Amino acid sequence: MSWTPTREDFDLYMVPNYSPQRVIPVRGEGSRLWDQEGHEYIDFAGGIAVNGLGHAHPALLAALKAQADKVWHLSNVYTNEPALKLARMLVENTFAEKVFFCSSGGEANEAALKMVRRYAFEKFGEHKNKIISFRQSFHGRTLFTVSVGGQPKYSEGFGPIPGGIHHATFNDLDSVDALIGDDTCAVIVEPVQGEGGVMPANQAFLEGLRERCDRHDALLVFDEVQSGMGRSGSLYAYMDYGVTPDVLTSAKALGGGFPIGAVLTTNDIAAVFQPGTHGSTYGGNPLACAVALAAVETISSPEVLEGVASRHALFRQRLEELSEKHGGLFSEVRGMGLLIGAELSEDFRDRGRDILAASIKEGLMLLVAGPNVLRFAPSLIISEEEVNEGMARLDRALATLKA
């Protein structure tokens, strides 16, 4: 097809549930992208924490090309080598004993939530079905996961929503104590709330959740869709806290840009998913698993994980310098590893999307987490030169916006 689409064609042909920027990227390499006109951009967005190794990483390209010459899809009537190799890799490098594969983070959380309810049903009876989540959390876009997520704007208008779901306050154990009981089947939490403003959990909070779940025979679920796969500086953020969940969900950077999700758990819990209990048409897809295996092997290397800490320090330093230069731009810079949130001060309140638009004009791609938090989720291997150049572009965007 010789036709070249434009941004206007999105409005003409696509359902308007997104409002993308005006530029259309057509090529990427490392932490840089180029649009249809050849303009270059530094990528601080990382596909919303998906492109953990940047664009067109040679290890991922090699894995995809090699598998493309073999088999693309089999369905789960058969297993396949890439899925088994990836499952073994995840088991050997985490707390998990069993893995379930699907196509996205939302699917992974849907499966995890069904799994914990099924486990409680079989072990204790149907009365034990309460799920505790947290306000401002985000767990996906299925009806179940938006209901468990703690942001009503995502579930409004889609009711009636599933019952038995209760929301406590993040980093507040007293609010958990007011809800948890012997009818609780699970507590689900993000070690770092991503969409909720890039809010890391306190150490005592996660330790307290573990203790309370143990006391009430409830399962602890960590949603590491965004915080996992090296984003925190460890393979998964639970390792940084030293708090082990019963179930962990993973996606985004797991496939380095190729769609895949996973649920990690123990033998005992996994046993409730017998044939016919749950499934995923594309779960364990050979192409996805081959790419994901290459991503996990690369990201779990000491060179990549150790580099995250130094890049975090550089991001924080440069953001604090920008804040001071622009009259207290940020009220707080927070996060873990290369998932960083910079909260706008009162003088810049609700200007997040304006900053995004101004940054695009200067050749920089970044994110927001709500209207008041700039979110940075770049490649884990972004160079110091690219960090500094990106910050220079953000500086120019802020100056233009203020003018």
From TrEMBL:
Compartment(s) where it occurs, according to its Swiss-Prot or TrEMBL record: Cytoplasm
UniProt binding sites for pyridoxal 5'-phosphate: F138, D223, E224, V225, Q226, T281
Residues modified to N6-(pyridoxal phosphate)lysine: K252
A single Gene Ontology CC term: cytoplasm
Superkingdom of this protein's organism: Bacteria
Needed cofactors: pyridoxal 5'-phosphate
One MF term in the entry's GO annotations: N2-acetyl-L-ornithine:2-oxoglutarate 5-aminotransferase activity
Pathway field: Amino-acid biosynthesis; L-arginine biosynthesis; N(2)-acetyl-L-ornithine from L-glutamate: step 4/4
Record note on cofactor: Binds 1 pyridoxal phosphate per subunit.
PROSITE patterns in the record: AA_TRANSFER_CLASS_3
GO BP term (any one): L-arginine biosynthetic process
Family (UniProt): Belongs to the class-III pyridoxal-phosphate-dependent aminotransferase family. ArgD subfamily.
PANTHER family per UniProt: AMINOTRANSFERASE CLASS III, SUCCINYLORNITHINE TRANSAMINASE
Quaternary structure (record): Homodimer.
UniProt protein name: Acetylornithine aminotransferase
